[in-house]
Amino acid sequence: LLRFFHPDGDRLITLNLGPDLKLDPAPEPLLAPRAGRRWQRVLSSEDIKYGGNGYAEPHRDGVWFLTTESASVFREEAA
C-alpha cells in the first residue's frame, strides 16, 4: 500500500499481486483514515469497465479484503 498525506484529504493505493488477502484485524496503521473521515473508492482494476470481474467493498468494520491481483485507489472524505 501507498498513502499520500494531504490536508484536503489523503489518498491510498492498495495493490495485491498474490492470492485473496483478508486482514482481520488490519494491522497496518496506514490503512486507517483520520478521525471523522472514511475511504471512498476512486478506481479499481477489478471494475467491469476495465475488464475485471467486479469488486466487493474492500473494508468494513476494521477488516480489509483485497482481491487477488488487483489494485485500488481511495480518497479520504468526511464520514
Verbal overview:
The protein is 0% helix and 44% strand. The model has no long low-confidence stretch (mean pLDDT 89). The chain is mainly beta and 79 residues long. A 4-stranded antiparallel beta sheet has the order 1-2-7-4, with no helix packed on it. Strand 1 and strand 2 form a beta hairpin. The protein starts with a strand and ends with a strand.
**Order of H and E elements:** EEEEEEE
Note the main sheet. Answer: 4 strands, antiparallel
Q: How helical, in percent, are the residues?
A: under 10%
The low-confidence runs, each spanning 5 or more residues with pLDDT under 50, are none
Mean pLDDT: 89
* Strand percentage: 35-45%
- General shape: globular
C-alpha Rg, in Å? 12 Å
Derived structural class? mainly beta
How many individual β-strands?
7
Distance between the termini: 22 Å
Strand order of the largest sheet: 1-2-7-4
Number of helices: 0
Question: Helices, strands, pairings?
Answer:
Blueprint (H helix, E strand, L loop, with lengths): L1 E3 L6 E6 L4 E3 L13 E8 L14 E2 L2 E4 L3 E9 L1
In a few lines, what is going on in this structure?
With 79 residues, the protein is mainly β.
Question: What tags apply to this protein structure?
Answer:
mainly beta; 7 strands; 3-stranded antiparallel β-sheet; 79 residues
